[in-house]
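Training component of the fellowship. As part of building independent skills, the fellow (R.M.) carried out the full modelling exercise for a liganded target. The chosen ligand was dioxothiomolybdenum(VI) ion. The inputs are recorded below so that the supervisory panel can assess the work.
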Amino acid sequence: MKTDQIGKATNRVDGRAKVTGEAKYAAEFNADNMAHGFVVSSAIARGKIKSIDTSKALALEGVLEVFTHENRPGYVWGDKNYKDQDAPPGSPFRPLYDSEIQFSMQPIALVVAETFELARYAAMLVEVEYERAEFDTDFEANMSEAYVPEKYKSTPPPDPRGKPDEAFEKAAVKVETTYAHPSEHHNPMEMHASTVVWGQDGKLTVYDKVQGVQNSQQYICGAFGMDKEDVHVLSPFVGGAFGSGLRPQYQLFLAVLAARELKRAVKVVLTRQQMFSFGHRPKTVQKFAVGAAADGTLQSVKHDAFAETSKFEDYSEDVIIWPGVLYKCDNMELSHKLVSLDVYTPLDMRAPGGTTGIFGLECAMDELAYEAGVDPLEFRLKNYSEKDQNQDKPFSSKELKACYQQGAEKFGWSKRNPEPRSMKEGHNLIGWGMAHGAWEAAQQEAAAKAVLQPDGKLTVSSATADIGTGTYTVMTQIAAETVGLPLEDVTFKLGDSSLPKSPLEGGSWTVSSVGSAVKAVCQKVREKLLKLAQQVADSPLAGASLDEVTFADGKIYLSGDAARSVSIAAALEQNGGKSIEEQVSNKPLEAQEKYAPYSHSATFVEVKVDEELGTVKVTRVVTAIAGGRIINPKTARSQILGGVVWGIGAATEEETVMDNNLGRFMNHDLDKYHVPVNADVHDIDVIFVEEKDDIVNQLGAKGLGEIGIVSVAPAIVNAVFHATGKRVKELPITLDKLL
Ligand code: MOS
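Fellow's submitted model of the complex:
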């Protein structure tokens, strides 16, 4: 008599809607009299618009208006509250604010017409005269100007500990090395889009592709001086985001502007090329000086990161916290500097800071392990840390040793010959490499509402998002299990700014934050239900406390006594035909403050490198994850598979290349910006190790959105070294770097 929804591999509750096309995305909503906007992007990287001639576009029948900085209404950008929840310190970019060009492909006009095709054509007729200015887009050339930001977007660097210089000098083995991670752009299937429906009363209904509807709502209110009550933002489905929807993007601003001015519905969809015109993963160069005793015991870690930002915002990530999280060492010094360039501000992309920082760290440590002649896995065991030394706090739980053990066993790591170039198959060199990783298991305050109708149907809601990760499904599972209802009787609602307050859907914190709120609100429903069940005539539950009963299979049982129960339907009959309604705002557990909550991973990789062609094939990946309690093994596995695939892409394919003559990313399309396809992806084995954690949040689940990617690329780099004897220090490992 237990429904056991949590922990059960469950198909997506929204799966049918998704594969049948019933699920609607931001650009798929329509309204009567809808107009279409097309964005005109700047051709130069920096300077001014001397003149912008829209007459040819406006002369076309069916073109309604061309919005530029010249005709931007005065009420826009009136107050300073347009900062969104994910804005780094600085001054956010304001579309159509003035004639200033701050980055290549900056939106400079929106052409609005009766049809999309007409808007796109008319956009080509807009004539712009620029006054060009000098620009800096060359990262390497500007590294000497790198600075320490006054305020960090994320954690400020931990204080130095011990005597890193002295310890490095004395170390028996040492490595000084530099690793570079390129810029990358988010490429979700769904392009950024906003459909804005203007109501007669001036109220707006906005369908936005975003990871936080309330963030978009707040941004619109700030930018346009509107009241919250007049702006309703919806985002029921999101076709992938990876961080690109953490900040409202410029199509939202432009669509709202046009809808308000034209007093009709307007839709703006960015092109794939325009997807490369806002935030990206910042190029990050990391210098390491690491030293160990002859037996591989770490003595000193110095880690200096240099990362890209824009000229108008100081975007920074947690690149350098990882040595203190992942390795026991008394002597550490860490620094993070920014290189500001004439580009759009970088933006969180799956495991921001961890993807770059753990890549560099894990490759540098592999070098050190080789230098010391210690097996890479043994090296990590030897330097295993029981606490987060940055904060001097123990982990809330850490089953990384189980990850090593189970991952290594499944992979067959013990059969590895440590010698580089020791394994060969025809013209392929075979390499085995490993790395480990971590990600914060954060929890934010979140609210949820539950309504249990007299007919026994439960609806739970919160203004969070499902960016493809399975939020609808896991929240439904948590609610169903807590109230003891079958999955079919539970509906979860999200992606609506009028729902209870939720944090942005990011940081791998949605299950811990919103899931815990769902659990908490459903526990309140249980309390009510038990009271009602006790009012049933001759109730077998009379006098029982909540601890003494079990909610399962649509019934409330005396625990351990299947024969003595009251059905939830019977309990609801006692409620006078009314629904049970509860709402909570759930805070992180206080006990967390004394602990460092992190998820962990260990990844083992086999590569085959064609000796003649230099091509790298990632033939086998075993990744073991310690992510606390797994709510849904099926969606959880998919999350990790996605992370591994991205790790393969990061290691071997992905990079946005800056053309410093034009100040523009050259490969701004999917034919030149390469991501893995099926032919690049082979065996992937995902292991979830047992991990119990009562501190991390009310569910014991750590979140899996980001831990899947962090240790993959370095394991591949390390495997390529083992295969070839070549240490590629700049991603991606394209064939030219191996020949
Ligand atoms: Mo994630 S980069 O926090 O959407």
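The panel noted the following from the submitted structure. The first helix runs from residue 15 to 20. The first strand starts at residue 35 and ends at 41.
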